[in-house]
Design goal:
By secondary structure, this protein is α/β, with parallel strands linked by helices. Helix content is 29%, strand content 32%.
Length: 249
Amino acid sequence: MNILVVGDSCIDEFVYGSIFRMSPEAPVPVFQPIKKTSNGGMSKNVHNNLIALGVSSNLITNTEKIVKRRYVDDGHNQMVLRVDTNDVCEEIDEITRMHICNNQYQDKTYDAIVISDYCKGFLSKTDIELLCKTNKNVFIDTKKQLGSWIEHATFIKINSFEYKKNYEYFNTNGFIDKLIVTLGGEGCLYNGKNYSVKRVPVKDVSGAGDTFLAGLVYGYLDTNSIYKAIKFAQECTTIVVQKHGVSTV
């Protein structure tokens, strides 16, 4: 099983600390750092989850260092501030794009292409449309406003907020058989059916959508059933939300 992940990536940092008082200078808490964790986020997190599942995976992503730094009250496991730096990146280069369109990258052919698009500039709508038209089994998770450029995707995974933002388009153009909507603790929606999820104590939902996407692709290629793939993806997500920070299954 060979899978190629394409999209924007970042470094996810979590700074855990203590908060015991409010600042006398402004109505803000005084944060005292204790420890810091760091790992690959966005498309890198999808890639890392696939590797954790035992998949042969390659990643094409930006070289610019985008950082998402979260400050978390260690006592209550509550994020109090997030600071994003270098929040844009350059677009994928033409040569690499053409290699993907020919289903050849680093002398490999791929069973699936995963597009993890956080809308930081690495992939345009035209890029995504071209990659969908020229490859089979293309799974997409995108933050872009959706349009006709998405219609050649095999499956489209979005969350409930993104679904509401694009509801008018879906209501007009369909795509019910392609669309998977994650609903957090309420499970996910596919083809008019809700797939419930096991209730667990949640420590952090950061990166859970990336884990779901990785599990979905793995499950689909393994079983050739999107229904079984959804259940497997939910099992993977249930594991990671019980961990601190952005983590792999």
